[in-house]
């Protein structure tokens, strides 16, 4: 019998903590989502800083969770293998803080929760995986055009509860982070 291998500690832990946050949200009628796993403009108490990082763990329901986690589990492990657990964790934390701070700045009356910014950071990071000698991979350009174009269109012309601006922020974070990490390795 083969034993199980916890092959991607950051991504798997992120998944498990997000699942726990979802279950807590369901069990408390959304109280934990509002008070722990959403970010919004509020006084800078210690709880604000928990939400600044923790909003990427919360999800509005099973569909929201499944959509983000399926992509996270497909794209995340190869990125963790390529860049390392510590580097990927830094990328996730930076993306969470940047997207949370921008949410508070530009959309003060709106709650933000969910891992889609992290997922889009990973998608853009993965499109940089083939970068060699400082060259720009064509996959990066195509993914950026298709993804960014779709998100800009949705932000301008589609009314929904989707935080398209934060998807763009996540994608920008992934691109910037990928170039920074690649520059250090060259």
Automatic annotation (TrEMBL):
GO cellular component: membrane
Topology in membrane: Multi-pass membrane protein
BP-aspect Gene Ontology terms: proteolysis
Keywords, alphabetical: Hydrolase, Membrane, Protease, Transmembrane, Transmembrane helix
Transmembrane domains' residue ranges: 53-75, 87-106, 112-131, 138-158, 164-182
Subcellular location: Membrane
Pfam families assigned: Rhomboid
Major site of localization recorded for this protein: membrane
Domain Peptidase S54 rhomboid residue range list: 50-183
RNA-binding among keywords: no
InterPro entries: Peptidase_S54_rhomboid_dom (IPR022764), Rhomboid-like_sf (IPR035952)
GO molecular function: serine-type endopeptidase activity
Highest rank taxon of the organism: Bacteria
Residue stretches in coiled coil: none
Protein name: Rhomboid family intramembrane serine protease
Annotated source species: Lawsonibacter faecis
């Amino acid at each position: 019998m083969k034993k199980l291998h916890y092959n991607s500690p950051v991504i798997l832990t992120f998944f498990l903590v997000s699942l726990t946050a979802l279950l807590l949200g369901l069990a408390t009628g959304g109280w934990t989502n509002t008070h722990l796993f959403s970010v919004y403009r509020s006084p800078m108490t210690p709880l604000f800083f928990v939400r600044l990082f923790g909003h990427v763990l919360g999800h509005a329901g099973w569909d929201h969770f499944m959509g983000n986690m399926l992509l996270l589990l497909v794209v995340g492990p190869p990125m963790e293998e390529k860049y390392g657990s510590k580097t990927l964790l830094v990328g996730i934390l930076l993306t969470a803080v940047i997207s949370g701070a921008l949410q508070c700045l530009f959309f003060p009356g709106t709650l933000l929760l969910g891992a889609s910014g992290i997922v889009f950071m990973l998608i853009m990071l993965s499109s940089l995986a083939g970068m060699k000698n400082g060259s720009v991979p064509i996959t990066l350009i195509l993914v950026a055009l298709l993804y960014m174009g779709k998100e800009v269109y949705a932000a301008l012309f589609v009314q929904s509860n989707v935080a398209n601006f934060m998807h763009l922020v996540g994608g920008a974070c992934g691109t910037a982070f990928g170039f920074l990490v690649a520059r250090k390795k060259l």
